[in-house]
Amino acid sequence: MRKMKKSMRRKMKMSTRLMVLYTGLTILLLAAVASFYYGYNEASIYEESVANLSQIADSTMLQIDSSLTVMEQTTVDVLADREFMLAWEANLREQTDTNTAVIRSVMTNAYKNKSNIRRVAAFDAKGNYYCTGVVDFSREDLLKKIEYIQSNYQFNIQNTRVFKGPEKDFWDKDAEGTVISEIKPIKDSNANILGYIEVQQNVFYLDRICNLQMNGYPLKVIVFMEDNDVFYKNFSDEPEGYPETIAEMTSEYSKIRETKDSIICTVSSNYYQGRAVFILEKSSLRQLIWNVIKGMVALVLVLFALTFLFVVIVTRRIFNPINSLLQHMSRQDLTNFNGKLEITPKDYETEILASTYETMMQRLRDAIDRQEKLKMVQTKTLFSILQSEISPHFLYNTLGSIANMCQEGQGEAAAEACYDLSDILRYSSDYKSAEVSIQEEIRNLHAYLSLMKTRYRQRLEYEITADEDTFFFLIPKLTLQPLVENGIKYSLMEKETVVIQVFVVMVGPELILEVKDNGCGISEESLEIIRQRLDEIQDAEAFEKISNQIQIGGMGLSGTLIRLSIFFGEDFSWQVTRTNDEDGTTIMIKINTEHNR
């Protein structure tokens, strides 16, 4: 009996010594981990900041290009209008009310659908002008403006356009705010300058694009155009000569540069002679590193306290079942969830832990199964769409239509069709993400319908109506195109002129996607097959059979509904009107957005 008690005391002492040793080793380990953690985070903060700055710069430059392109497109729409040029040349000889009305009408139509265009103005060397919107200026000021343009911009030699940075609105002195503008010469067929056209845009659109932050600190943005002229900057409290210094530093292209106090990222415009410079102050990085130090110290203290409590309170009674649980968990991976948990909890906490683990594993199995189903259907759908769009029949017809436009002298329309085809193929072949925003989906649908319009011309009419509130909602990729494609395919068999209408709207908490055609309608037998497939997707064998049937032309509607059902679950519902008011089919999809934002 005494020997047994002495043996138990030895065991207790050995346990205590092991606990003390464990505590000491833990402290040393925490110190080593903290040192490594600090060094790693210091390097990763810098690398991630540079990478994030580069991504932000690329994305912002695309938005700046897009903003400038809206002005450029407006000038092109005006100058490419034959009626405008005829009326302009006639008014140079003798002004008439009819020609003036034509000029104003063309200018107004050129920007009526471009919400960020403020005004369009055209004027000649004699001071005659045509301007949309409110005007308040003197003829003497206009003549000075013309003289300045002729003296400073060599439109006859090299300049095809000039972008001017923020300034007061010349045409309305009392207007609030500032504008940016593009000035372009009006030339006849012999390249003689007949006047100038100016398109204005409110500068707050650029302010909104360039209102950038990193690490809670604002990014400085400078946009240089042409010969290092400062076109735009989002700050004003710079030292004297600061923009000139940045211009000289970035004149030779290198995407990332460093100074003592800042990291500088330079991105060139894809379409214009200009570049944007993004400046991140290093003080923001120092603040992040200081936050890491504070967090590291707090973490070490917390871990030390938890370790001390752990080695004092935890007993072998708790360790044994937990070790068994850990061993079981270590044998699990994403391909093996079938191992049975064989432990006997000796306390309430361990029992809850084991039960929670089992529940978690079951949820993970269900989630992976759902994801695999979506991946299987989505991959087959993407490949089917891509194969249908790169099939010889599709490409021959599309390229044939483009060739016809080229022969008929419709160069711009042919180029636009080429861009649409490129966008569609790029969109269909991008497998990085199975979900996209509605804005991206609608942009692809516009390109697809524009291409179909090029092919079928007067036989196809379409309308797309989408609320901006829906643009950032995520849906499975290629949700709308298969529905529209089906509508066109079956309507062409019955109708001389096919009408496709697409509506994307929010009604309360519900997102509504509706595709309407004027074709032959859909049979009740086809609808019953679709309902049956949707009911069977919960069964593994039935789902595999259905997914294997998804192929080109065979599962446009049901394949889309299956993907949506898997993606949104109970938040998804659908309705098909077999014969609508146009004798065609209407497909309505409803998604409850309360759980899917």
Q: How are the SSEs placed, and which strands pair?
A:
Layout: H1 2-79, H2 82-93, H3 97-111, E1 117-123, E2 129-131, H4 139-152, E3 162-167, E4 179-187, E5 193-202, H5 204-209, E6 213-214, E7 217-218, E8 220-225, E9 229-233, H6 242-249, E10 256-258, E11 262-268, E12 274-281, H7 282-313, H8 316-330, H9 348-389, H10 392-407, H11 411-428, E13 435-437, H12 438-456, E14 460-466, E15 474-476, H13 480-492, E16 498-507, E17 510-516, H14 524-536, H15 540-548, H16 556-568, E18 572-577, E19 586-592
Parallel strand pairs: 14-16
Antiparallel strand pairs: 1-2, 1-5, 3-4, 4-5, 6-7, 8-9, 8-12, 10-11, 11-12, 13-15, 16-17, 17-19, 18-19
Could you explain the architecture of this structure?
By secondary structure, this protein is α+β, with helices and mostly antiparallel strands. It is built from 16 helices and 19 strands. The chain has helices at 2-79, 82-93, 97-111, 139-152, 204-209, 242-249, 282-313, 316-330, 348-389, 392-407, 411-428, 438-456, 480-492, 524-536, 540-548, 556-568; strands spanning 117-123, 129-131, 162-167, 179-187, 193-202, 213-214, 217-218, 220-225, 229-233, 256-258, 262-268, 274-281, 435-437, 460-466, 474-476, 498-507, 510-516, 572-577, 586-592. A five-stranded antiparallel beta sheet has the order 2-1-5-4-3. It has a five-stranded antiparallel beta sheet with strand order 9-8-12-11-10, with helices on both faces. Helix 2 runs antiparallel to helix 3, helix 10 runs antiparallel to helix 11 (411-428) and helix 10 crosses helix 12 (438-456). The model is unreliable at 3-15, 386-390 and 549-555 (pLDDT under 50).
